[in-house]
Amino acid sequence: MTQIPAERLGNEVLRSKIMTAEEAAKLVKDGDTVGVSGFTPSAYPKVVPPAIAKRATEGGEKFKINLYSGASLGPECDTALTEAGVINYRMPYQTNATIRKAINAGEVKYTDMHLSHSTQYVNYGFIPRVNVAIVEAIQITPEGHFYPATAVGNVQTYVNQADVVIIELNCAKPLEMVGMHDIYECVNPPEREPIPIKKPGDRVGTPYVKCGLDKISAIVYSDLQDTARPLTPVDETSQKIADNMLAFLRAEVAAGRLPKNLLPMQSGVGSVANAVLYGLADSEFEHLNFYGEVAQDSMLECVRRGKADVCSATSITASPEGLEAFYRDIDKFVGKMVLRPQEIANSPEVARRLGVISMNTALEADIYGNVNSTHTTGTRMMNGIGGSGDFARNGALSCFFCHSVAKGGAISAVVPMCSHVDHTEHDTHVFISEQGVADVRGLSPKERAKVIINNVAHPTFRDQLMDYFERACALNGNSQTPHILSEAFKFHTSLAETGSMLFKK
Known about the structure:
By secondary structure, the protein is α/β, with parallel strands linked by helices. It has 16 helices and 26 strands.
């Protein structure tokens, strides 16, 4: 068994609890609810979950578990456990291709939810309590508390509930991360108090996760890095979207609606988000602040170059190259990087107080401003809603990106009616595609429709969309939100029947 260095394990008494991944895996029983660390494959357990899966695939055991996390996990967890057939129920967010297939096949029960709600679901007893917590840490204190690695997620909540705590002590991740975390817990109503964060960099909790010597059941050595996702290259269309977003921000500053350093920004992941943030890194903007759930390569670059004063998140979700660069330049992030529990990172209360600029991706938007972020053709889950709803509804400015077309022009991102709704028209302010910007703040539904069609939709589909809108107005006596219910999903039915949303009148 690999020796754990003394600087990683602050209490020698705990050495009696060191065991192999296979031994620790036996602590998980049939029917258990397992809460794990990790958030969009960062800081998730990497050695015990495969050992649990091995019990089913090679040992022939028949058992099922419920699996809770912060968000999606790496293949050592989500993929291995799904392929082993041991996951009964999963929450709160998913992008993993293997478990996505299992969810859409009805083999795994799945609850999608706002990431700020996931802790509450557990603490309020809405879903089964956590029996076992499996977490990654970089150091354990003499008191039995531990420092997380590159993400926090829901780890404190799961540790609080669990009867069995298994710590994967990752000795390959740098100890320089100690002190970057800020673990603040909300108590349940009616005793809940305001979260005392007034600025993105405020630290209001402890730098470690509270656990205790008696609660730790097993310690397992690990030296595996996060299986980070490669960075998607910024294509020409994504760059145009980014340029349009930056032009909009400059106009808002010029109009006096945003300060010169903007407001704290939240961004989802992906090529467009990276293009926007790299654009900010190259821009005239200074003293930027970030407050959200993920810090990806471009956000880290803003900090590295001195463009950003603070980056507050729950996870460092970087590419392999971005993660390596973060470790190499870690001294540049000390005092500027804050990693929080996701109920704090995604808190509607804090988002509203700070006035966060929310920037997220839409799979499709309809002409009235409703957004589908999670489902293809309304039925198949593509990914979870994540934190986009937390910020879109509660931030100061809600922006959604989309490529105007997909599948070589066969699919329009703008449709008469969304096939699935994650964000209603009440929560959306600005739409940006490579075609332009649709600022729909303060507009009536019919005004929104014209602005979205003319500025965001692809020219190929504009006539088709405008024809629907005008006929809907005529049919419904120019009512508040005109629709032709028999045709509202014709774009989608045409796609299913012909392979294209483009059709003849």
